[in-house]
Amino acid sequence: MTADPYAALGLTKSASDADIKKAYRKIARTCHPDLKPDDAKAEAKFKAASAAYDLLKDPETRGKFDRGEVDASGAERPQQQQYYRDYAEAPGNPYRSGPNRRAQGFEGHDDMSDIFADFLRQRGQEGGRFQSRGFDARGTDQRYMLNVPFLDAVRGGKAQITLPDGSAIEVKIPEGTADGQTIRLRGKGGQGHGKGPQGDALVTLNVVPHPLFERDGNDILITLPISLDEAVLGGKVATPTINGTVNLSVPKGATSGQTLRLRGRGVKGQGDQMVTLSIASPPKIDAELAKFMESWRKSNGYDPRKGMMP
Length: 310
Description:
By secondary structure, the protein is of the alpha+beta class. The chain is built from 10 helices and 11 strands. The protein starts with a helix and ends in a 10-residue tail after the last helix.
């Protein structure tokens, strides 16, 4: 993973949110493993871009990275002073500061790390007495990012994340998961202090773009190529959906850009699939077709751009 997520997207820190999204989608459409299954370089570029987009798409997380509070993976950087304050302000702590209590044993230290080290030494020396008046605190929440295939997000599925200690957690992907959604795994975060409970794991999901489908709310969008004869004559045309192939009725005289609706074929059955037609010319224009079109144009020619010109 690159230390600079902006560089992974070919951007600088001045990039807008729209620039970030546009750059990521461009890389996804050219380097996705589904499109280039045997290209290791493209796969590496896609993974780096996905991780970078995961970090930068959220303004709050992006701000933390720009301020140096988290690294390129989204992990928090050590904050010694905050860690010390969590201990110093805990009820029952003999070194707790307050309006009527003066901190003891820390005079003469110029660095907070020295104070914190001294605090831990005092804790060890006091042993059981400190423990009896001890400090219990819930463990910290730990954040993770997980790339989820488009179809797993809309249909639901399962994935795994690997923790720093090498163990794996299974994550259930709910049907209809949206890009940027965060799933909380209770008790899978940092260890608690004393008798405090373990924190949670917060998994932010990055939905990987699909080569065919796009999502708009609960609707699924797709551009469907049709042949010249299918456009002219109409008929049933096989059409992919998120749950398999169905036949779409194309009307006679269909045009490029015309949108047809497949009801109930969207996310969780609550949306529709919107199919935009695109007429594809034959891969080869033979002499017979060319002769027919020349003859047809003489008696049936028309101007589809009429009224457009100033």
